[in-house]
């Protein structure tokens, strides 16, 4: 009341400003704002070409080092910098079917997005471990090879490990359109700009788009934008999970997210460690990945996460792959040789593992899966001998069975992009493939 009488409500809002005192190709040093800044604070750099959003990545001796989200054109020595609002997304249910950038701006040409009533911070802690719900029932992913050999539960987190060009994008589209979920959230980190519309319109299709929210930062985006794409996708998924929905979160790829973190860390002055990755990369990976999963007890919603890992040079023990594999609840390996042989999805069954399989298969299903694995392993072990003619049929009944049945299993694992399956149909097909023990020697050729 007294403020109104004195006219205090009409006083202009006080804004704190600093200025750029040095700059290089990736970062800016700003003075005058240090007492009010923290790591991660958002800034607006007011250059000649307009305001450019930025973020504080380091604080040293009264100065702040910042990076820009967008090309820093027109920013130089003396450019004003002011505090901006913290990073949040006001997610709304009307965002389904839309494509946006990591700052929450639409990029699909369909007009503005309607903001939700409650902004959510992009950086948030995972649900408390002691109050987090347990994994839910098993989940139909719609892909036979995964449903049968890497069976997934609601709230589980799986890694898809593959080199480039092995079919990750196609597999993601099959999951986004075929998995049994209420909402799919796609985080495309460092995606080729040319492929975005092809992926959405051809691979995902209208049915998949209708229940999906897509966040995309293309490969030419800044490191901050590529990093923020993963945070934004996780934030959108948390919004729908908080409403009690079953969310499928697909992020492609965690490796490009880690590369963006490396660029940011090096610009902030962190020392390079393993293969040039800074220590902050391996601290940030679990902070992101642990946010997926079941919500707190009492909330039926869950985030089932599938995260692709781009293994460099087919090295599955490189630092990012090794770190992610230790955080997640299972890993699926895509092999180039399987794809070159013409079987897609090119999942290497013997190298893939879901840590929740013991708790979500019946005894009969487990026996089928284990028998199929033994057959595929024995066939792979004997393949060179058979190819060279060094093995004679009839020498070992187990080898004869593996040679006969392995092609049947491989044929069952092949699946077209438009096909959709379930766990029940996957095990029925596997049982049919294995029901050939009495077939003739030439059967399955």
Structure keywords:
Rossmann fold; Elongation Factor Tu (Ef-tu), domain 3; 6-stranded antiparallel barrel; alpha/beta; 9-stranded mixed sheet; disordered C terminus; 445 residues; 3 domains; 12 helices
Task: Describe the protein in words.
With 445 residues, the protein is an alpha/beta fold. It has 3 domains: 17-83, Elongation Factor Tu (Ef-tu), domain 3, CATH 2.40.30.20; 88-357, Rossmann fold (3-Layer(aba) Sandwich); 364-435, Up-down Bundle (Substrate Binding Domain Of Dnak, Chain:A, Domain 2). The protein has 12 helices and 19 strands. It has helices at residues 2-5, 144-149, 168-178, 195-210, 223-242, 254-268, 279-289, 319-327, 336-340, 363-388, 397-413, 423-434, and strands at residues 17-23, 27-31, 42-47, 50-60, 63-68, 80-83, 88-89, 99-100, 120-121, 138-139, 152-153, 157-162, 183-191, 212-218, 246-252, 293-294, 302-310, 330-333, 353-354. The chain starts with a helix and ends in an 11-residue tail after the last helix. Mean pLDDT is 90; it is low at 437-445.
Element layout with pairings:
Blueprint: H1 2-5, E1 17-23, E2 27-31, E3 42-47, E4 50-60, E5 63-68, E6 80-83, E7 88-89, E8 99-100, E9 120-121, E10 138-139, H2 144-149, E11 152-153, E12 157-162, H3 168-178, E13 183-191, H4 195-210, E14 212-218, H5 223-242, E15 246-252, H6 254-268, H7 279-289, E16 293-294, E17 302-310, H8 319-327, E18 330-333, H9 336-340, E19 353-354, H10 363-388, H11 397-413, H12 423-434
Parallel strand pairs: 8-14, 12-17, 12-18, 13-14, 13-15, 15-17
Antiparallel strand pairs: 1-2, 1-6, 2-5, 3-4, 3-6, 4-5, 7-9, 10-11, 16-17, 18-19
Helix pairs in contact: 3-4, 5-6, 6-7, 7-8, 10-11, 10-12, 11-12
GO molecular function: ATP binding; ATP hydrolysis activity; protein-exporting ATPase activity; proton-transporting ATP synthase activity, rotational mechanism
Biased composition (Pro residues): 114-129
Keywords: ATP-binding, Cell projection, Cilium, Cytoplasm, Flagellum, Nucleotide-binding, Protein transport, Translocase, Transport
């Amino acid at each position: 009341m007294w403020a109104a009488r004195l006219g205090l409500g009409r006083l202009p809002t006080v804004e704190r400003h600093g200025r750029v005192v040095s700059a290089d190709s990736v970062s800016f040093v700003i003075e005058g704002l240090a007492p009010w800044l923290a790591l991660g604070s958002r800034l607006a750099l007011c250059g000649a070409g307009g305001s450019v959003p930025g973020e504080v990545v380091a604080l040293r001796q009264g100065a702040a080092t910042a990076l820009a989200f967008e090309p820093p054109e027109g920013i130089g020595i003396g450019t004003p910098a002011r505090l901006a609002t913290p990073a949040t997304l006001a997610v709304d249910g009307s965002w389904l079917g839309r494509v946006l950038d990591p700052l929450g701006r639409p990029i699909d040409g369909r007009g503005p997005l309607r903001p939700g009533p409650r902004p959510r911070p992009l950086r948030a802690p995972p649900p408390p471990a002691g109050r987090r719900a347990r994994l839910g029932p098993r989940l139909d992913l719609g892909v036979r090879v995964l449903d049968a050999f890497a069976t997934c539960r609601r709230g589980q987190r799986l890694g898809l490990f593959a080199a480039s060009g092995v079919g990750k994008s196609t597999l993601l589209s099959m999951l986004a359109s075929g998995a049994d979920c209420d909402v799919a959230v796609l985080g495309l980190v460092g995606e080729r700009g040319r492929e975005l519309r092809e992926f959405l319109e051809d691979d995902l299709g209208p049915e998949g788009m209708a229940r999906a929210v897509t966040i995309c930062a293309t490969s030419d985006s800044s490191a901050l934008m590529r990093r923020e794409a993963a945070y934004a996708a996780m934030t959108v998924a948390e919004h729908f999970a908080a409403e009690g929905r079953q969310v499928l979160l697909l992020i492609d790829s965690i490796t490009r997210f880690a590369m963006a973190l490396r660029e940011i860390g090096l610009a902030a002055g962190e020392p390079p460690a393993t293969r040039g990755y800074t220590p902050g990369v391996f601290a940030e990976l679990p902070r992101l990945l642990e946010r997926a999963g079941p919500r707190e007890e009492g909330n039926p919603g869950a985030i089932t996460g599938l995260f692709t890992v781009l293994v460099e040079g087919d090295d599955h023990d490189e630092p990012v792959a090794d770190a992610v594999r230790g955080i997640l609840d299972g890993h699926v390996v895509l092999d180039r040789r399987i794809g070159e042989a013409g079987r897609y999805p090119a999942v290497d069954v013997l190298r893939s593992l879901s840590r929740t399989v013991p708790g979500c298969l019946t005894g009969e299903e487990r026996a089928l899966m284990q028998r199929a694995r033994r057959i595929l392993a024995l066939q792979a072990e004997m393949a060179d001998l058979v190819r060279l003619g060094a093995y004679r049929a009839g020498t070992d009944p187990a080898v004869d069975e593996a040679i006969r049945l392995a092609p049947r299993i491989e044929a069952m694992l092949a699946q077209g992009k438009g096909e959709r399956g379930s766990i029940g149909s996957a095990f029925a097909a596997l049982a049919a493939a294995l029901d050939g023990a009495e077939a003739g020697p030439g059967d399955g050729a």
